[in-house]
Amino acid sequence: MMFPLLMICALAFACLGVEKGPLPLVAEVHASSVVYHGNRNSHVFHQPGCRYFNCKNCVVVFSSLKQAIEAGFRPCKICKP
User: Where are the alpha helices (DSSP H) in 17-56?
Assistant: First the structure.
C-alpha cells in the first residue's frame, strides 16, 4: 500500500513545481544575512564578532561586502571580512 502513496506524493510535487536539488549550504544562508558596520570617520567596515563592530563611529550599515566597497569603505585588517 505504500507504493500508491509514494506515487501520489511524487505527482503532487511534480504538479506543484517542486524540484529536487542541492540544499543551500549553511555558510551561504548565513552569508546573505550578515550585516557589516562601517566607521563613518575611517571608512573601514567590520563583520560581526570584530572587536570594533560596535564602535561609536560604526554607524553605517551594509548588507554586503560589495555594497561596502562600492561606498568607498575598506575591509578591517583585524577581522578581515
Answer: 26-31
| Burial profile 8-18: b = 16 or more Cβ within 10 angstroms, e = fewer | eeeeeeeeeee
Q: Where are the domains of the chain?
A: 25-81
pLDDT digits (tens, 9 = 90+) for 34-45: 899 999 999 999
Q: What is the mean pLDDT of residues 3-22?
A: 47
For residue 34, give the 3-state DSSP assignment: coil
Which residues neighbour 78 within 8 Å (Cβ) at sequence distance 6 or greater?
46, 50, 51, 52
The domain 25-81: what is its CATH number?
3.40.10
Q: How far apart are CA 36 and CA 62, in angstroms?
A: 5
Model confidence, pTM:
0.60
How far apart CA 80 and CA 20 sit, in angstroms, is: 36
C-alpha cell at 55: 564602535
